[in-house]
Amino acid sequence: MRVEPPRSEWRFPGPARFDPDDDLVAAGADLAPGTLLEAYRRGIFPMPSGRRGDPLLWFSPVRRGVLPLDGLKVSRSLQRSMRRFEIRVDTAVHEVIDACADPRRPAGWIDPDIRSAYVELSRLGWVHSVETWRDEVLVGGLYGVSIGGLFAGESMFHRETDASKVALVALVEMLRDDPAEPRLLDVQWQTPHLASLGVVQLSRRDYLSRLPHVIAAAVPRAFA
């Protein structure tokens, strides 16, 4: 069951005030549940600056990474890997977030404040995990924010080869549960690795124009 938190006391700038060449659109505010949901509904997401004491940073990429649900590239080796794992949803949300936040990971960005904020959003029913298990051991997964037909992927991890990719394949299938409902799988930025899986880029204008229709859609059954 989803719980709508109190509205944020902060107000984000509208697209007319965004720098057309800069992904960074705001700084400051907080990570309260209402603030986070307001940001995602506006196509904005947070990241810490990485420097202690600096304000929180908020981004709306000029070129947004999205994975078309009919565009996921599944190799033969990945098809074989899919038979090795069990898929579960929301049975270990906090463990998935913690694995993604492991400070030993290169380019880690999930600090304790971010971790706590998304754990709280999961308690309220807005953050979900798709997990890969083998022999009753969590070996991979991903988590993200689900609002209507939007799934904003935050991070993924693996402890066995292809375990995070298998979770992504499962997520795509979950989002394809109703062809009549608009869906959008947002991955923030396209990277070479994500591009190899089928992630493409939308202009910020295109992404923001689609967003209201998507978030007004029914939630996928897997996350309802």
TrEMBL record:
Chief localization: cytoplasm
Cellular localization per UniProt: Cytoplasm
An annotated GO BP: protein catabolic process
GO molecular function annotation: leucyl-tRNA--protein transferase activity
Keyword Lyase part of the UniProt annotation: no
Alphabetical list of InterPro entries matching this protein: Acyl_CoA_acyltransferase, Leu/Phe-tRNA_Trfase, Leu/Phe-tRNA_Trfase_C, Leu/Phe-tRNA_Trfase_N
Record family assignment: Belongs to the L/F-transferase family.
Protein name: Leucyl/phenylalanyl-tRNA--protein transferase
Organism: Nocardioides agariphilus
Gene behind the chain: aat
